[in-house]
Amino acid sequence: MSFSNTGLRRGYVAAQPLALGVFIYAVTFGLLARATGLSIAEAMLMSATVYSGSAQTATVSGMAAGAGIGASVATILMLNARYLLYGAALRPWLAQASPTQAYASLYFLGDSNWVLAMKAHANGESDAGFVFGSGIAMFIPWVGGTLVGSVATEWVADPKVLGLDFLLVGFCMAMGTGLVKSRHDLLPAAVAIVVAIGVDRLAPGGWTIVAAGLAGAFTAFARKEDAA
Amino acid sequence: MTVRMELLPLLFAVTIASFACRAGGFWLMRFVSVTPRVQAALRAAPLAVMIGIVVPAALRGGVAEWLGLAVTAVLMRLTRRDLVAALSGIATVAVCRAALG
């Protein structure tokens, strides 16, 4: 059996230790979404459909600054480009399941359950239901936390006092610092910094993110030496 | 507790974009093998995107924001937990704003 209920349950249980962190992140997103003018229903709809913390936070911040559909879609594509790699890496495993099961598992795929699933697979887990089950275990606290955060905003007077406007920047600083793993990461990062400063001076707004992302990606692509 | 109609096209577009990223890599692997160059580009993109988010905030920020960024980076290096590092940075910004008025 390549996709079974027992595998699904194993994934759901294995991901539970990650649920609290996802819940707290979702609460902060709910607070930010309300602060930028989204209704409770809109915040929850976004959490259930886009289902990506960094992409959602960047999108609502951009919308508050006047970003339209084009800039919002570009932001999502750049921030979620890593999922192309995640999905590609899951291909040999998920291809054993039916297309419906595989694409449903991909819909509920997040950073933490992807890492968890890849680790489990390396340790001998072969049931593709594990990917789906661990994804569901992340999706429930994500949508639930969004509800709690967006309702709680009624009692939060000014999100700036709590530093919530710093939410996305703080998470990006943390995740970005964690992403610098070798000397190899420094050149694309340096080019991205220079381009970000330049674009921010010339054309402030949502496009700084996209320009910096493309600059870093192209630098890595164009570099002669192969990725380690 | 309502969803604005004029917001639906944008929400629909970002939903499609988000799912395209999730499903795209899995789907594309039917046809192509990711070359080392493409892989290097995909791997470099997230950090570069995050730089694009942090840099404008840093350029506009004051003491509170710079301290928040420093606390976040140091804690991330020490703890390797992004939730701990980011929330501590956010708390630093809040405390500095309260202290500095």
Please name the defining characteristics of this protein:
heterodimer, A: 228 residues, mainly alpha, 2 domains, 0% strand, globular, B: 101 residues, 81% helix
* Poorly predicted ranges of chain A: none
The figure for the number of domains of chain A is 2
Q: Percent range for helical residues of chain B?
A: over 70%
Mean pLDDT of chain B: 89
The helix/strand class of chain B is: mainly alpha
> Cα distance, first to last residue of chain A?
36 Å
Low-confidence spans of chain B: none
Cα-to-Cα separation, first versus last residue of chain B: 35 Å
Globular, elongated, flat, extended or rod-shaped: what is the shape of chain A? globular
| Count of discrete alpha- or pi-helical segments spanning 4 or more residues of chain A | 12
Give the helices and strands, then pairings:
The complex is a heterodimer of chains A (228) and B (101).
Chain A: H1 5-14, H2 16-35, H3 40-49, H4 53-64, H5 69-79, H6 82-94, H7 99-107, H8 111-122, H9 129-152, H10 167-179, H11 186-202, H12 207-222
Chain B: H1 8-28, H2 36-60, H3 63-79, H4 82-100
Helix pairs in contact in B: 3-4
What does it look like?
The complex is a heterodimer of chains A (228) and B (101). Chain A is 73% helix and 0% strand. Chain A starts with a helix and ends in a 6-residue tail after the last helix. In chain A, helix 4 packs antiparallel against helix 5 (69-79) and helix 7 (99-107) packs parallel to helix 9 (129-152). Chain A has twelve helices and no strands. Chain B is an all-alpha fold. Helix content of chain B is 81%, strand content 0%. Chain B has helices at residues 8-28, 36-60, 63-79, 82-100. In chain B, helix 3 packs antiparallel against helix 4 (82-100). The longest helix of chain B has 25 residues, at 36-60. The model of chain B has no long low-confidence stretch (mean pLDDT 89). The chains are: A mainly alpha (228), B mainly alpha (101). Chains A and B meet through helix 2, helix 3, helix 4, helix 5 and helix 6 of A and helix 1, helix 2, helix 3 and helix 4 of B.
